[in-house]
Amino acid sequence: MGLLDKIDGRKNLPQPAAAEVDDTAAKQPAEEIKEDPYLDVKRRIHSAIIDEMNKSGKVITDREAMFKIVDDRVNDDEFMIPRMDRPKVATDLFNDIMGYGPIEELVQNPDYSEIMVNGPDKIYVEDKGKLKLTDLKFRDEEHLMNVINRIVSDVGRHVDEASPMVDARLSDGSRVNAIIPPLSLIGPVLTIRKFGKKPITAQQLLKFGSLTPDMLQFLEACVKGKLNIVVAGGTGSGKTTLLNVLSSYIPEDERIVTIEDAAEVQLKQEHVITLEARPANLEGKGAVTIRNLVKNALRMRPDRIIVGEVRSEETLDMLQAMNTGHDGSLTTTHANSPRDTVSRLETMVLMSGMELPLKAIRDQVSSAIDLIVQQSRLRDGTRKITSITEVVGMEGDIVSMQDIFVYETDGSVDASGKFIGKFRATGVRPNCVEKIRGNGVTVKNEWFTD
Prior knowledge:
The chain is built from 15 helices and 15 strands. The protein is an alpha/beta fold and about 450 residues long.
């Protein structure tokens, strides 16, 4: 067995499982959580390893070599660690030096979609849409800051009192946000939005009950038929997951440019160019914004432009791209309803600094956007497409829309606590059908039959 195989063996060790923590544990004060009996010896071994590297002048980046050093130290009888506890101590030390400390096991656990560290003593996970408090913790704020600095430095970012907020990502594409004192009054706060090694597929969305087969087939036709689509929803509602699924329907022979703050869109097509925004450096220079990248993408001969999320002045450039021959573009935005999405787009266009009359902005929105897909996370933890809405055009000064599919529930729940509801086709035949068919894609009338 290789040394790194021993690390994977930690899953078989008796470790605290976040998913098993009930409400009683969640109410337990942090000071009642059992202290690590090997905390002192871990610090001594950690310091000894660092001192040894400093004296040799060598920085060890090979994970297997580092685990051998840690394993040898832990098995040294000098430290008097019982043999049955040595594998766990070695894993903890290795995670401190090369991984993400106590949250390493959470990062590696595919059951958790989000990890929230509220200061050194409280670590929460989202498991099946519900928040749970784990019994893991960092030694102190310095320990947590070391992990945060390791994460953000890997992608060329920094965080300190002068720049106390930072967005970054892990090597697997998981999204990371950190905010530290003086902005945070409870110590460093770290939030990790995880993305699985394998993107969620359309068939999994069907299995989860996020939409119906008719809705999925219609959305597939819309993507292949080059409709401009906005996926809207609240934080954690599954917008990026749905964007990944929709993007998978883009034909292989098209040139795709993706633009994001932190790269999250996972495309399997051959011809994909991934662009990522860059924050300012320590001198406040060198920033490259989403808007800069959207403008540059127009010069790259894209067939499709995918913007991970529009949240500011880049919205105007995105709408102009959709209106000038870049059909089939996709993006997401934070909004609670299709009507709210239109209002948000209007507001974000105004943030561009262009003094446009509201009527002109609404004309831009109505002519650029074909479809708004509303994604929601319900109170029972499930994520569903609650409406698929077509942007029809303008009626006077108002953007006109019509629902194609909706999710309806009266708020009642079943025995498992899940909402009882159903998806329903409104019976409206979308105006965009002709555009879809004009691009050589089949549309079935029975999709829209109520």
